Amino acid sequence: MSKKIKNTNINNTSVSELEEISIEELDLEMNEFYIDYEKIDSIKAPNDMKSWVRDAIDKAEVDINKHKRKTQIIASAASIAIVFSIGVYNPVLAHKVPFLEKILKTINDTLKIDEISYFIGLDKIAPKATLDESNKVKFIKPSEYKVNKLYDEKEELEEDVLEDKKAQAPNTEYLAVQFIHKMSNSIINPIDGRKYGSIKITPKTIELAINGLELIESYEDRKHLYNELNKWKNGKFENAVDVHNYVWYMLDGEIGKAISIKDEVVDNIVNTYFN
């Protein structure tokens, strides 16, 4: 028996007529086809296919769990590093845990974080944290409001005010801001060691500074400084650096930015007037 394929057209494609192939010739070709039975015999599979599949799934789950744990550890470490970095930059964020706040503050001072942030300009981008009148954390960016200087520059060379009787109430916006600036100068250390003008902090000068706030045209800055100076009124000066630098920006300061507090001076003020 034989079969013969004639010229035909499949899918519009011409197929040439194939030569007639006999069954005998086909059997011969099949017999010559080589099969490596040893290799076939070497292919083995468990009798229980479910067990095979289960083992594969279990192994995959172990690998997935290892990957998840590794990812979680990396994420946790990264989160801790970020939180720690933010805390060192803003120790006040840990104010509800005093011992932690103290540790973060110590690290901040030791590593001179504020000084570094000033030199690289980070303080202009990342806001500093402070506590509002409700003892809640709020973030303060440097003031963009600038006060105008409307008097002779020679007046800036006035002697330091070291006694209450020499302290006079400011009568212009610029003098009101400068009054606070000079008060804060008396209890801070500047980054570059330079500062000009100092007004002794007493209950009277604090009251004069608070009264002078009404001369500041910017409501936002007036409100912020009112909140911060009222802390001074209650004998709390932990915000001295932030207060100084806030008004320093308002005065468009270039030298003498505050970096730390003179603890011994503050202790003397507190012991003299607030105990």
UniProtKB/TrEMBL annotation:
Keywords for this protein: Membrane, Transmembrane, Transmembrane helix
InterPro entries: DUF6241
Protein name: DUF4179 domain-containing protein
Transmembrane intervals: 73-92
